[in-house]
Amino acid sequence: MSRRILVVTTASAPRAEVDAVIRSHAGDDAEVYVVAPASKISRLDRLTNAEDDAREDAAERARAASDAVSGESEAHVGDVDPLRAIEDALRVFQADEIVVLTATEAKATWLEDGLGEEVQRRFSIPVTPLATR
Known about the structure:
By secondary structure, this protein is α/β, with parallel strands linked by helices. The protein is built from 5 helices and 5 strands; from the N terminus they run E-H-E-H-H-E-H-E-H-E. Helix 1 crosses helix 3.
């Protein structure tokens, strides 16, 4: 039976890096659900619901991560709040593991900062945080 991996991406990652992470955790036959939170947004834009650019960026990140996975995958745009995006994704996709792709700490946005650790605390599923180069 193939493993079900939820990939949460708040940063762009090289194709080979994404594929290598998925293969190392699930093998070649993993079922992958990619969600990119619309988190590239300022606090002011979030307060005023100006999310169009953030959703467009998230759609591009989701497609890129999905394309990087060898095998079957689905790409989706999630909520502005990465934790809410994960909760929403887990309602429709029962994952065996969550892989969280974020920017390196030096480049992380206020919504990404500490995301991998927070996901590990909040969800009872194995989590692999990965900071992209």
